[in-house]
Records
---
Amino acid sequence: MSSLALAARDTTTMLRRNLLHARRYPSLTLNLLLTPVMLLLLFVYIFGDVMSAGIGGAGADRSTYIAYIVPGLLLLTIGSTVVGTAVSVSNDMTEGIIARFRTMAIHRSSVLVGHVVGSVLQSVLSVVVVGAVGVAIGFRSTDATVLEWLAAFGLLVLFSAALTWIAVGMGLISPNAEAASNNALPMVLLPMLSSAFIPVETMPGWFRPIAEYQPFTPAIETLRGLLLGTEIGHNGWLAVGWSVGLVVLGYIWATAKFAQDPR
C-alpha cells in the first residue's frame, strides 16, 4: 500500500475509535450541547421581546430576535463541542494509549486527524440539533437561496475544523482533563463577547474592538447574512481568512507538540 493509502486507513481506524468513545460516553457531549440550547431558550423566551424591540424597533415581535440570535448560537455550539475534543485529547495523552500508539506501525498524523474529523462530525450534528430547536421555536430562513445554504454549511464545517485544531493543541499541552477544559474555555466565552447576542454598534466604545477583532464576529455576521439572505460585506472574507489561519496555526502547533511530547 502507498503511504497515502496507509494514512487514510489509519485515520479511518482512529476516527472509528473516537466515534465509538463518543457513543459510549455521551454525557460530555450532551452537557456541552446543553449550554447553547439553554441560552437559546433563555434569551428568546425571557429577553426576546425586549431584544426584538431594541434590534427591530418598536413593534417588533420575538421572531426578530430569534432570526438574529440563532446564527450566533450555532457557532457557539461549535465552540462548546470542541471543548470536549480538548478533554478527549488530554485523556489520550495522560492515560497511556498514545504511548502505545507510538510503538505501533501506524501513521503518526492519523491519531490527531482522527480526533479532528470526529470532532467536526460531532460539531455538525450538534449544530443540526440546535438548529432544529431554533426552527421549532420560530426561526425561518426563507430568504436564503440553495447556494447560500451550501455556503453556510461550508462555513460551519471550515470554522469547526479551525476551532478543533486549536482545541487539539490545547488538549496536548494540558496535564489533565480538567486543565484541558479550562484551557478551551475561551471557545465558549468568545462567542458571548461577539455579535452573537447584540449588534456590535450598540456596545460601549471601549468594548467594541474586543467584539470586532476576533474570529467569531465575522463568522457570525457571515452566517447570519447567508441564512437570512442579507448583505455580508467584508465579513465573508474575514471569516474565511480567520478559519484558514486558525486551521494552519492549529495544525502546526498540534503536530509539533504531538511529535515532541513523550507522555
Note: Residues 124 and 157 are 7 Å apart (CA to CA).
---
Amino acid sequence: MLTEADDYTHEAVQIRQDFVRERTGVSLSHVTRYSFDPKVVGGNVEQFVGVAQVPIGLAGPLLVNGEHARGEYYVPMATAEGTLVASYNRGMRLVYEAGGVTTTIMADHMQRAPAFVMPSAREARAFAGWLDEHLPEIKEAAESTTRTGKLQGIEKYTAGRMLYTRFNYTTGDAAGQNLTGKATQEACRWIRARYPAVEHYILESNFATDKKSSQVNMLHTRGKRVTAEATIPNELFRRIMRSDTALMFRARQISNLGGFMSGVNNNGAHSANGITAIFIATGQDAANVAESSAAYVHAELRPNGDYYYSVTIPSLIVATYGGGTGLPTQRECLEMLGCYGKDGVRVFTEIIAAAVLCGELSLGSAIVSEEWVEAHDLYGRNRP
C-alpha cells in the first residue's frame, strides 16, 4: 500500500504503469519515457504515470521593442497543429523587417471574488461603505499571508441583499490564483469577525470568472492587460506575404462585422493558437487560455499605404515562477526566453503579446492571398 510520502518514487510510478498495462493491454512505450526524477512533479500532478510528449517548434527571431522585453527572442511553441509554427515564424519575419513590435503593459490585476449575504439591500449598501473605510486594515490582513501579493483595492457590486466583491491584487511573478485565494480568505475572516451583520460569505462567487472568458475581465483585466502594435509598409506585405495593405484593411472591416454578428469576444483571427502553444511549452496553466485568448484587434490604413495593427490582450494570465514553470522541460523553454524566475513575468507577457500580433498578421495575409488552405495541404497533413 503506497503512502502519500512515497507516491512519487520510481517504484510507485512503476506500480501504476504496470497496472495500466495489465488493465488496458497497452505497452506504454512512450508515455513512460521521461528525463526527470518523479519527485519533481509533486504538487503538479497526482497519480503520476508518465508524460505527454508534445512537439516543440521554434519561431523567430521575434523583435520586441517593449518596456521590459527588448531585443530578439526565439519562441518555443508546443503544438501538434501543422503550419502553426511556420505561420507565426512568417509573421515574425514580416514585423522584424518593419522594425519590430512595440509592447505596453497597461494593467495588472488578479482577483478573488467573494460574495457577502446581508440582512437587506440597505445593509449591503452600508457594508460596501464600511469596506471602503476599512480598506487599510483589510489590506493588512490579506497581505499577512503572502510575500509578493499586494491588495490594490476592492470592487463592489450589489444585487438584492448580496454584495459581490472583486479583491484585486498584484502577484509578482506568479499567476496568483492560489495566492489570492489564501489572502482573500484571511481578509474575509477578518471582516466577518468585525462586521456581525454579515450572515454568510462565499469565498468565490464566480465573479472572478476563473478560467472562463467574461466581459467584466475584458474591461477590468484579470492577469495582465497588454497591447502589441506595429506599423508595416505595404512593400513588405507584397514581398513577404504576397498580400496588400488595402486588401488587409478591407478584410479587417469584414471580419469585424462578422465577429459582431456572431457575438465573439475576440475580433482577431487565432490568438488562442499561439498562446496555447507557448503556454504548453513554458508550463502555464493551459486552462487559462479560456480567458487569456480574448483580444481586441484594431487596424488602420495610413494615407501612405502603411498598415498600423494592434492587438490588446486584456486578461493574459502568465507566470515565470511557481506552478508548472519549474518543471524541467518547461523551465528550459522559459530560460530560452530569458524569463524564468524572479522579474521575468513582464518580459514574458510582452513576448507573448508580440508573438500573437505576428500570428494574426500572418494568418490574415494567408486568407486574403488565398494561401491558407494550400498551406495546410502542403504542411499540415499528417494522417497515419
Note: DSSP finds 13 helices and ten strands in the chain.
---
Amino acid sequence: MTESDTPEHTARHSVRARCCIVGGGPAGMMLGYLLGRAGIDVVVLEKHADFFRDFRGDTVHPSTLQVMDELGLIDGFLKLPHQRLQMMDGLFGGTPVRIADLRRLRTKYPFIAFMPQWDFLNFLREAGQRFASLKVMMNTEAVDLIRRGETVAGVRAMTPDGPVDIEADLTIACDGRHSTVRERAGLRVEEIGAPMDVLWFRVGRKADETENLFARVEPGKMMVTFDRGDYWQCAYVIAKGQYEAVKARGLQALLDDVVRMAPILRSGIADVKSFDDVKLLTVAINRLARWTQPGLLLIGDAAHAMSPVGGVGVNLAVQDAVATANLLADKLRQGCPTENELDAVRRRREFPVRMTQRMQVIVQNNIISGALQGGDRPLKVPLVVRLITALPWLQGIPARLIALGVRPEHVQSYAAPASLCRRSVGITRR
C-alpha cells in the first residue's frame, strides 16, 4: 500500500482511459493530440490551471514546424503572433561572428519561430478539442502511481475537488526534468552536468529599436537576447551556483553589466525593478538509462533534460512525441504494449538525444566555460567559430543541427476517421 492508498487519499471517482499522459508540456500535448487523432482514448493531466510559466522554452524550430505542416495545422499556427530568426549572429569579445544561417537549409520552413510556449500549447489544446477521444484535465496533479503487482496501471492525481484515480493501460510521463512519475517509479537519472545557470528576464523594446545580434560573449559574461516584438527576452548566463553571489552584488550591478554588453537595452532596462523580475533557470543535462517499466514510458525532459544551448528542448520533446505515436498508436488500440514494445521508443530516440547532449557538452566545455572564467585576457574567438564565420557555406551545418536536429521524426501515425474519435473517456463515480 502506498501513501495515496490511505483513507484520507481515497479517490472519490476514477477516470478510465487507454492512455494517461502526465504533463501538459510540448511532449504531452503533442502526444495527446496525436493519440486523440488516432482515435485512442487518452487523458492528459496538467497540474496548473493554465500553461503560463515564468520560463518555458519558446523557440519553435523547423523540425516542429514540419510536424505541424504534416498534421495540417501550420496555417493556423503561423497566424499566431511570432517572430522569425534565420541568421544567428553574435559578438565574441567584440568580434562579430555568425554562428548559423538557416537560409541555407533545404526545408519548407527555414526559420526559427519565437512564440510564447503557452500559445503553442493552447493551440494544440484547442486543435485537439475536435477529438472526443482526447481529454485534457487542467489543475490535475499526478502524485503517485497505481500499481497492480509490478505493472503500472495509472496514476493517483489531486484536483481542486479532491483525489481522482486515472486508470490506464499505459501511463506516459511527460512531466519534465523534475518528474514526479520518474521519482515514484524509482528510475535512476544519469547526471552529465552543466557549467552554467541562466537568469531570464524581459526588457522593454521601442518600435524603432532593431538589432540582429543573438549572442554576446565577453570575459566572465555571456548573454543571449531575443527580439519579441514589444520587448527583449534576455538570458544572462552565469557560472553554475553563482546566483547568490550575483544577488549579493546587487540588482544595479547586474543591470549595469547587461547594458554594457547590450546598449540597445538601455531604454527599457528600468522594466527590471527587482530580483523578482529575474527568474533563475538551473541548467541540467541528464538522461535515463531505462525509459520504461511495465505499463509505463517516460519521454521528453522526464527522460532526458537538455541544456538551453541551441534552444532544442521543446523540439526534441515534440520529436519524442511523434516517434512515440508512430511506434505505439496501433499497438495501443489492442491494449498496453509490452515493455519491449515500449522500449522501442528509447531505441529510436536515444541516439538523437545522446548526440545532441554531446554537442551541447562540447559547446559548454569549449566556449561557455572559458568565457565564464573571466580574467583580464581578451577573449579569442574559437577556431571553429572563426571558420564558420569566414566560410558562409559552413554556416548551414550548425543551422541544420540546431533547426532539424539528429534524425528528425515525421508523422506516420494513423489518423482515425472522425466517427472513431467520438468515443468519450469514461468517468466512474464512487
Note: The first strand starts at residue 13 and ends at 22.
